[in-house]
From TrEMBL:
Catalytic activity reported: Couples ATP hydrolysis with the unwinding of duplex DNA by translocating in the 3'-5' direction
Keywords of the record: ATP-binding, DNA damage, DNA recombination, DNA repair, DNA-binding, Helicase, Hydrolase, Isomerase, Metal-binding, Nucleotide-binding, Zinc
Cofactor(s) in the UniProt record: Mg(2+); Zn(2+)
Keyword Acyltransferase in annotation: no
EC annotation from Swiss-Prot or TrEMBL: 5.6.2.4
Biased composition, class Basic and acidic residues, residue ranges: 509-520
Entry protein name: DNA helicase RecQ
Region annotation (Disordered) ranges: 509-531
Membrane-spanning ranges: none
Length: 531
């Protein structure tokens, strides 16, 4: 680089090089940072892993004062702050995990102007003490992370977020930045409105990764299927194979090695030295395959990963997107390949049921799983589904670079079935002002007089028993698939089904609803498939 260019370099870019050690900005980062450094408000929608943090960290470093980051993820604050401190950034947090002295120290550092970044939980900002503290220091920027929490209709609504509009009133001269990874157009509107950011500029990064080919195959003999996928299409390529358990990671790595593919395992059960060695081989060598649990991949920036294969179902579409997103960062053709079977569904359901967390947590996990299943079962463009999941408009007519576009699966016309589901939800919502989950909707369709059906007089609904032509399992498939198509939504901690804007197009017969036939058959015993 010539001296002239170096002098021309913006302070933001210098900070990117000097503090973070990265070469260039990604996607919308530069535009966002320039806008905020200049004092503008911004709403940023970027996929997870897209690099949202730098969008506020760099303005916080470039502008005078402390950047205040509002984040609901208290559990992550310590890690975030540690990572920043390791880079020499003066970062701290104030939250309920601290004792009085720790909090006092942090407050003093803020007032003395010794902090570049201060992380706060949203509930802190309801305390007059906190607001008073903030008004006695100098603030460079407010970053509101996970901004979709302000949406009362979303899964993650946090009442404390509603109070954040006050930041703009009290600090009209401090730029504000609202960031989120998942937002429909409606949520975006709500963010702008409820946070009181009418003049904010919107930066919407595309979630599309056009060079990644998405494929999901029915699982039969997964290791053999993987082997032929690798030898047919990716011989000598670097890639990642994700498995759920440490045991299957070990076995799969061994199996591939025995069959002439250079593969190493990576999971949290291996000692740190082995893990580091395998990771650095992966980064250094050209054609190594890492078989790993999801512990592998965070912060790994290898541009020429040619494939990501899943032998087990990810827990959510977000996870799938993030993991497959590690392929093809260099923009060259890459494959996201997954083998999926009914046993995956059962396994994941069991994990949710037997797992930690309260009822609300489990329901949310189930809703995430259902969306992932919808992606597996779709008869439509996989990329389109992914984009729609993140609230982005898919390309009409399909992408031409996923399995369902390349080899369209058999489908049946599910329009009437979808209408039956949607009218049942509609009757409950509009006539009864009630919301119910899938079980109740299906019981109504099947005309079952269960205790709960009787209790709510649902046998009196005109839709009671109109769905006897399908089995319960088939109805679940219909519900799952229309959920995945965005024709129906899941809401709240009880996982109730609610209509979406798109539901109307089906109810008014403005569109057809093709559904995929023959869900992937289980490979092992059918008897265990009771879910
Ligand atoms: P998000 O908050 O959007 O999920 P992060 O801010 O955590 O994403 O960034 C994801 C990863 O990408 C991190 O490991 C981060 O260091 C890296 N990253 C972000 N921006 C860049 C960049 N311009 N160059 C290289 N790596 C980057
Ligand atoms: Zn497609």
């Amino acid at each position: 680089m010539s001296t002239a260019e170096a002098l021309d370099e913006s302070e933001a870019l210098t900070t990117l090089h000097r503090v973070f050690g990265y070469e260039a900005f990604r996607g919308e980062q530069e535009a966002v940072i320039e806008h905020v450094v200049a004092g503008g408000d911004a709403v940023v929608l970027m996929p997870t892993g897209g690099g949202k943090s730098l969008c506020y960290q760099i303005p916080a470093l470039v502008r005078p004062g402390t950047g205040v980051v509002v984040s609901p993820l208290i559990a992550l604050m310590q890690d975030q702050v540690d990572a920043l401190r390791a880079l020499g950034v003066r970062a701290g947090f104030i939250n309920s995990t601290q004792d009085f002295d720790e909090r006092r120290t942090m407050e003093a550092a803020f007032l003395a102007g010794e902090l570049d970044l201060l992380y706060l939980a949203p509930e802190r900002l309801r305390l007059e003490g906190t607001l008073d503290l903030l008004s006695r220091g100098k603030i460079s920027v407010f970053a509101i992370d996970e901004a979709h929490c302000v949406s009362q209709w979303g899964h993650d609504f946090r009442p404390d977020y509603l109070a954040l509009s006050l930041l703009g009133e009290r600090w009209p001269d401090v730029p504000r930045l609202a960031l989120t990874a998942t937002a429909t157009h409606a949520t975006h509107q709500e963010i702008t409105q409820r946070l009181g950011m009418p003049t904010a500029r919107h930066f919407v990064a595309s979630f599309d990764r056009p060079n990644i080919q998405y494929r999901i195959v029915p699982k039969a003999d997964p290791k053999k299927q993987l082997l032929s996928f690798l030898s047919d299409e990716h011989a000598g390529d670097a890639g990642i194979v994700y498995c759920l358990s440490r045991n299957s990671v070990e076995k799969t790595a061994e199996f591939l090695s025995r069959n002439g593919i250079e593969a190493v395992p990576y999971h949290a059960g291996l000692d740190a030295g082995t893990r580091a060695a395998h990771q650095s081989r992966f980064l250094r060598e050209e054609g190594l395959v890492v078989v790993a649990t999801i512990a592998f991949g965070m912060g790994i920036d290898k541009p020429d990963v040619r494939f990501v294969a899943h032998l087990d179902l990810p827990k959510s579409v977000e996870g799938y997107y993030q993991e497959t997103g590690r392929a093809g960062r260099d923009g060259l053709p890459s494959t996201a390949w997954m083998a999926y079977g009914l046993n995956d569904v059962i396994q994941q359901r069991k994990l949710i049921q037997g797992g930690e967390g309260d009822e609300a947590f489990r329901r949310r996990a189930a809703a995430h799983l259902d969306a992932m299943l919808g992606l597996c079962e779709t008869a439509q463009c996989r990329r389109g589904q992914l984009l729609a999941y993140f609230g982005q408009d898919p390309q009409s007519g399909g992408c031409g670079n996923c399995d369902t576009c390349l080899v369209p699966p058999d489908t049946w016309d599910g329009t009437i079935a979808a209408q039956k589901v949607l009218s049942t939800v509609w009757r409950l919502e509009r006539e009864r002002r009630q919301k119910f989950g899938a079980v109740q909707i299906i019981d109504i369709l099947l005309g079952r007089r269960t205790a709960k059906v009787i209790q709510f007089d649902h046998d009196q609904l005109s839709v009671f028993g109109i769905g006897e032509e399908l089995t319960e399992g088939e109805w679940r498939g219909v519900v799952r698939q229309i959920l995945a198509q965005g024709l129906l939504a899941v809401e709240g901690e009880y996982g109730t089904l609610v209509l979406t804007e798109a539901s109307g197009t089906v109810l008014r017969r403005e569109r057809e609803v093709p559904l995929r036939k023959d869900p992937p058959k289980p490979t092992a015993s059918r008897s265990s498939a009771g879910s």
